Amino acid sequence: MRRYDPTDVHSLARAKADIDLRDKLQRETEEADFTWLMHTRRGRRIVDGIIRRSRAGDCCFSTNALTMAFSSGMQVEGEYLERMAKRLCPESYLLMLKERNDEQRNDAGG
What we know:
The chain is mainly alpha-helical.
C-alpha cells in the first residue's frame, strides 16, 4: 500500500489528472444520455414533467424552514434540467415547449 506523500508533486499531478479525466468522461456521458433522451417525444415528456413538478422559476417561500428547503432543492434540480436542455439541445427544448402548449390546448378542449 502506497503512503500519501504531500511533497510528491508528480504523483499529486497524476492523481488530479486522473480525477479530471474521470469527471470529464462522466459529464460527457451524462450529456450524451440527456441529448438522446430529449430527441424522443417520450423523453421530452419525462423531462417536461420533472421540470413542471419541480416548480422551476416559482416562489418556494414557506414559513416552515424544512418545507422551504425541500421546495428549494426541487427547484434547483428542475432549473438544472431546464438549463441543460437549453444548452445541449435547444431545438428539442423548444419542441418540448411547443408539445406542452399543444397538450394544454387539447386538454382545455380547444
